[in-house]
Amino acid sequence: MFKWFKKESPESPDTEGNRPQQTKGLWSKFQKGLSRTRERLKEGLGELFVVERIVDEAFFEELEEALITADINIDTVRSLLNPLRLKVKDGQLLKSSECKRYLREEMLKMLSIPSPAFPPLARPAAIFLVGVNGVGKTTTIAKLAYRLKSEGYKPLLVAADTFRAAAIEQLETWSRRLEVPIVKQTPGADPSSVVFEGLKAAQKRGVDIALVDTAGRLHTKYNLMEELKKMARVAGKVLEGAPHENLLVIDATTGQNALRQVELFGQALPLTGLIITKMDGTAKGGITLTLAHLFKVPIRFVGLGEKIEDLDPFEAEAFVDAILP
Amino acid sequence: MYCILFENLSERLEDTFKRIRGRGKLTPKDVERGLREVRLALLEADVNFRVVKDFINRVKERALGAEVMESLTPAQQLIKIVHEELIKTLGEKAVALDLSGPKPIPILLVGLQGSGKTTSAAKLALFLRKKGRRPFLVPADTYRPAAIDQLQTLARQINIPCYNPAQGETPVEIVKKALAEAKAQGYDVAIIDTAGRLHIDDQMMAEVEEIKKAVAPREVLLVADAMTGQDAVNIAKSFHEKVGLTGVILTKVEGDARGGAALSIRAVTGCPIKFLGTGEKLNALEVFHPDRLASRILGMGDVLSLIEKAQEAFDLKKAQELHDKLKKEAFTLEDLRDQIRQMKRLGSLEQILKMIPGLGNKLKDIPFDEREIVKMEAIINSMTPQERRYPKIINASRKRRIAKGSGTSVQDVNRLLKSYEEMRRLFKRVRKKGGLQALARSLFGR
Prior knowledge:
The complex is a heterodimer of chains A (325) and B (446).
Chain A: H1 26-50, H2 57-69, H3 74-89, H4 96-111, E1 125-130, H5 137-150, E2 155-160, H6 167-178, E3 182-183, H7 191-205, E4 209-214, H8 222-238, E5 245-251, H9 257-268, E6 273-277, H10 287-295, E7 299-303, E8 311-313, H11 316-323
Parallel strand pairs in A: 1-4, 1-5, 2-3, 2-4, 5-6, 6-7
Antiparallel strand pairs in A: 7-8
Helix pairs in contact in A: 1-2, 2-3, 4-11, 5-6, 7-8, 9-10
Chain B: H1 2-5, H2 9-17, H3 28-44, H4 49-63, H5 74-90, E1 105-110, H6 117-130, E2 135-140, H7 147-158, H8 171-184, E3 189-194, H9 202-215, E4 219-225, H10 232-243, E5 247-251, H11 260-269, E6 273-277, E7 285-287, H12 290-298, H13 303-313, H14 316-328, H15 333-346, H16 349-355, H17 370-381, H18 385-389, H19 396-406, H20 410-433, H21 435-443
Parallel strand pairs in B: 1-3, 1-4, 2-3, 4-5, 5-6
Antiparallel strand pairs in B: 6-7
């Protein structure tokens, strides 16, 4: 789990350019995030687990509140707490420390979803990043490109968000900063045609991984979801088996609507993983647990900050420990 | 598994109250039982836990011992109280922007990354121009790559002037210079788009405070995503404490998020929600109406007002006939016209259809513009009775005749026929799922 904390590269570019922020290592950043969570949960979980106490209904109510306040869905909360409640009902006296250990185990069980190796083995491989508006797809693409490049792969950016004003420019800026090639067309162009051209170029140039940036779309928009399907079909025509990964990007601040996002994006494309962004805020993305619980889609990466290297593989233990201090 | 979560609150309450239907008063036990369901519905709608707690306590006080109106079931009575209390919490009515003071009047937009500030800035500019103002856009997000480009591009699309920052200008310099420029050129409102920032990023929060000090805005609007979860309270509280908010723009409302965050934000800041962002087009900005959002948070459509309105306006016999027809799937264009005529009495078609629980979301792809309705009726009027009953016989030459007769175009006729076809399919689906029976039940008085 220490992979989350190990990096410290003060030279790397900041995702938001010249933001006035002293360079901090991921370690301190994540620790700060953790302590914030702890602070916030102090009223709930922190206190609950600090002093050893007998588990009763009042305890459960407090625990339930703390979990719900972390955006964990009620159904998930119940399936976590009901077995414990039954035990108490049966006359088994539980101590709060046992409760915590049990919760931790159950949460880890929910999060242990087998996920194939990343990046996919196909060459070139096509990875689609999809999601609703404003979750951070473009920034995440840049972070992924940086990551893949530093691991020795040859990535290519495909600017298939032809809708949002200046989305192409945003990705172009990244292409320049990271020195990663980009395939783009003009604003308003058919995104499927950008995908086609992008993947053809990836093939020709011997690129390892094509990262496709798609326009943000609300999952309820029928036409836009159809457009997404078409883009995937076109990708499959250029490269066999493409897109090899469909990653849904979800904002950690999102509440219960994330369930609808996974459900409906999942109907349009077979989702191979989730990326949870903005995990450096006060929202701890408890919805992640519910998504894993209900949809069994692996969580691939988490966005932990604004710097280009602030994207790390999801580590269930670190995540659970952040929720259960 | 998922649909269980979003089971309609009204259905759930009806279920809870089945056994006690017909009694004249809400007993403490009924209220307790009902409010447990309400609490769940609110939590599922992302209303913050603490806010829910306070809210439930208030409703409980009001509901205990409340008389059940004769026309309502106990469940409906409780929903009515919950609904009214929700509206009260959200603010009784729309609060307009404060556009007083020396011109140009600065409006500052703040919020987290990705909440939709830049798009909202452009939408607000367009909105104000339609109200006769002369808005000027100010891009003060110097951090996100191409953010300035984005606002300038949007500004060009709607033909509204936008400040052009020089290389290396800081956000504070930008807003000062932009305001001077707006003043010199006689613009009366300056809408300032700022960088997205985390509410716990002290440096960035200090920067936005500085911007505020530099321009003394009349309005500081928090731009918040309707999909935000429990954390909405922390976000809103921090922004309010540090920058002093005057209102909220709730964005991405056109999705299916229930928007409970709005209630949380309102409860912790006391600031009115002023606008809703309802689409990707730049004219998709609506003045906020508490009652609509209240229904949405409850996830039940506006059941009560539908019942009330429907009982006033619907011709029950006609509705029964329609119901029978739908059962037999013989929904003709004549029926559509009857519908249109009745709907015209009720209010906008879209509004009515949206009020029907479980139907609202399915209507997204059927165009219901109010002006269209007048056209639709005219087109159907220009058809022969036979055409209305058997739309299949309408060929190209008939279409031309109908278009001429109704003063529309063949495309309009095609569009109507397509809408009709989609509606027929939709009703078929709804009917199969038993949704229509439920609708009919509520229309015909249980």
